[in-house]
Amino acid sequence: MGITIFPTVEKCTSEGREKHTVVADLDGTLLRSCNSFPYFALVAFDVSGVLRLLFLLLVLPLAGILYYLVSESAGIQVIIFTTFVGMKVSDIESAARAVLPKFYSEDLHPESWRVFSSCGKRCVLTATPRIMVEAFLKDYIGVDIVLGTEIETYKGRATGFVKSPGVLIGKKKAEILQSTFGETQPEIGLGDRHTDIPFMTLCKESYSVPPNPKVKAVTLDKLPKPIIFHDGRLVQKPTPLTALYIILWIPFGFLLSCLRVISASLLPTPLHYYAFRALGARLTIKGNPPPPKKSKDHSGVLFVCCHRTLLDPVFLSAVLGRPIPTVTYSLSRFSELIAPLKTIRLTRDRASDAFVIKKLLEEGDLTICPEGTTSREPFLLRFSSLFAELTDELVPVAMVNKMSMFYGTTARGWKWMDSFFFLMNPRPSYEITFLKKLPYEFTCKSGKSSHEVANYIQKVIAENLSYKCTTLTRKDKYIALAGNDGTVMKKP
């Protein structure tokens, strides 16, 4: 139920607020949507998989009945218990840091953000568990204080229950606000429902945020900090209907994925293109790919692709109609076993790697997919300049893939499932653009350093995809998302 006793947020001026303190509710106030189910569903699926998501969906009617007929607190407690019980606290924190920020950032209310961002000190007061929202609020939109529901833990795992004083609803919001600020009265209070009135009355000015499903979210370029790294499997925010569709599709999607993998493994490479299209995968070719190597006196072509999924070299070979070996620094043993192409794992020893790459290029073409440019990372990472020193036959390849349900990459989950998840999409697609071969003046033979060549290729691919280059590396991504350097160790 909306608030009518306070003026709406549109009437609040944002000028001269640099020294003011603002306190805002989250769902329905700072965010456009008042429904927090999708964010609990994201954590449930990311940490515990489809069964947890199914249980969460099954208890949703009960939670709704309690929420509207008994109390908001009781309904929220049911959702919290079903989502968190038995989870490792570290896994919840990891999901909150790597998965949720992207979805939260796409739902910011423009008028609330206009007022909220204009204030010098920012506080969010929410019934959502603090562990879910703190990473986004503090790291990306500059919130100073996060007051949320605290969950109970035991030996590093969530029990599903909440700590005293319970779910922050109504008077409990006012009490914790008073205990935090003492006699200091915040200048602005923002809320969207009648249970926000107790804490809003403690502020000098109070404004309501009326429900408006047609309001457009704040554009990402207006955020204080861009969200570069993102992890997680789900492409869309899982509303109850979307969650039901995902649960029903997974058994069929997994069988379809296995069929696509088997067809790529058993059929000869010239038939891969037609097999993928027959099984629902769309392949689009742009540009003019170079012909296969015809003479032993010439080096093979090195295709430098921006990384999307582990299937990059598979789809590249499919559109070329011939198998192109690929080199990698890190690949799970299972992915290596099912790969339909020759896959060479490099050792990071420069001399040894150079010898292997040179031999491969003498035999024919080669693919390198420097990790970085996935569909949710709008930038290019640097790739090793080693390859630029060994051949001047360099062809940049820009790749774009589209999926409607599952991402085909992860930094924190089971990487051996990456290919299966991408192929579980109903209609996955790859758009492969062959750019012009590097001109002589941009090669090492012309006097350019290997790093200059690598940076030039990065720039060319980025311009084609309308991406922005950064100096961030693969290691930076894995440290930010998974807390490690992303190396898959090969057992002796």
Global shape? elongated
Q: How large is the radius of gyration?
A: 26 Å
Describe the sheet with the most strands. 7 strands, mixed
Helix percentage: 40-55%
- Total strands: the figure is 16
* Low-pLDDT residue spans: 372-384
What topology, given as strand order, has the largest sheet? 8-15-14-9-12-10-11
> What is the percentage of strand-forming residues?
15-25%
Number of helices: 19
Q: Structural class of the secondary elements?
A: alpha/beta
Distance between the termini: 62 Å
Mean pLDDT across residues: 86
Short description:
With 492 residues, the chain is of the alpha/beta class. It contains 19 helices and 16 strands.
Describe the structure.
With 492 residues, the protein is α/β, with parallel strands linked by helices. The protein is 41% helix and 15% strand. The chain is built from 19 helices and 16 strands. It has helices at residues 26-30, 37-48, 50-70, 72-84, 89-98, 100-105, 110-118, 130-140, 171-181, 197-200, 240-266, 272-278, 312-320, 333-338, 350-363, 386-390, 418-423, 450-465, 474-482; strands spanning 21-24, 121-129, 145-149, 151-154, 157-162, 188-191, 205-208, 282-287, 302-305, 326-328, 343-345, 366-368, 379-380, 394-402, 429-434, 468-469. The strands form four sheets. Strands 8-15-14-9-12-10-11 form a seven-stranded mixed sheet, sandwiched between helices. A hairpin with a 2-residue loop joins strand 4 and strand 5 (157-162). Helix 5 (89-98) packs parallel to helix 8. It starts with 20 loop residues before the first strand and ends in a 10-residue tail after the last helix. Mean pLDDT is 86; it is low at 372-384.
